[in-house]
């Protein structure tokens, strides 16, 4: 691991706080809020799945929008703007009761989230790479783990019902966005223009294609528990069971340690071998509520999926850059687009699966099959060459 100094900390903190705003408070807060909003009668499970679908569609569109924004102007202006817009949209949900309005806000939230989730970590990865500190890049995702814990606290303590449940999220998101937006802008200004110029190497080739195919399965595989595990817990557990709320806490705690864990695992085993182990554990986690329905299955799913999905992201991003260094920013955007596109299928499949009379528990078999696909393709990923 490279020597960690103050400038590294500042760069990592800027992107980590951005992920707290857009991906934890703006996006994943919906997961622990979902069963509460269902109890409030704001919408039913089918409509809740539709809202998740709109958000994931926006995420895909935002990731695609990040492709042409992966340039100096986009990083200096577009990235901070998307971050501030996302925080404003989280606040907007406090005042909307009708389903159409909520769907529009979740779509717009997903677009701004996709832009930030692609560009902020990619910007820091490029910034660190110029300083021979790429191995530190995975620590960016500590922000997401900490943000998920923060969401758990805010969901638990809020005294309000209905759309007002979003107010604590917004009151945290707005000042954090105002703090880290100028930090990201300064990082973008600190990058030399040449660092953004792609080389003549093709964006896609036979070396990185298996990695992209694996990531396609990963998006669908992880999104089911990260969206529906609290709702699934209501299906499998008694009404007074502590895991009805506690499952999100365990997911968030596992997520918090996972960034450091997989960052070190990649440095120790190599990113490719670490990614194979990651997919295997994640597959087991998604399958556990089906294999052992009840407290053991819910708890194991929370720990294994919460402890692996960020590792999938950081290991895949580093592998992609190692296989094709000259296309680092564009590959980051393409990968998140694939991830966003496949996870978009998750809520849509669950909506139709449950409408056909199947249980929410059985829908997790879709996620397990997707992760089996990811594991197969990850096995065919080439080992990066040191001189690349």
TrEMBL record:
It comes from Pseudomonas berkeleyensis. Gene3D superfamilies: MFS general substrate transporter like domains (1.20.1250.20). One of its GO terms (cellular component) is plasma membrane. Keywords: Membrane, Transmembrane, Transmembrane helix. This is YbfB/YjiJ family MFS transporter. The chain crosses the membrane at residues 48-70, 77-95, 107-128, 140-160, 166-188, 209-233, 245-262, 274-291, 297-316, 328-350, 362-382.
